[in-house]
Description:
Elements (H helix, E strand, L loop, with lengths): L3 H12 L6 E4 L2 E5 L10 E5 L4 E6 L2 E4 L5 H12 L1 H12 L12 H6 L3 H6 L3
Antiparallel strand pairs: 1-2, 2-3, 3-4, 4-5
Amino acid sequence: MNTSxxxxxxxxxxxxxxxxxxxxxxxxxxxxxxxxxxxxNAIYVKNADREYLGKIVDNQFYPSAAANTTDxxxxxxxxxxxxxxxxxxxxxxxxCSICGRTLIKGESIDxxxxxxxxxxxxx
Length: 123
């Protein structure tokens, strides 16, 4: 599973001053682990029920016991192209996949993500 694009997106967000970046893709939430925790700078993956499904460390996904094969396949597809997955999420839900706000401007609705959030992740 190639996770380099989502790792790059998080690195860009951090470099642009976003303290706690979070991305919602498909039915999963990707968030940065605390820098002072057990997995500094890992990207945690949780499902819609906030159940921990694994982590991304050094461009490698490590699934938890709770992650099934469907989860793994959907996560792999999402992290292979997070920008497209974020746009699809926004178009499906009407919410920005980064900040979670309702998309109200035409440009944002058409794009599926707000321009500020897209810029913060280097998209």
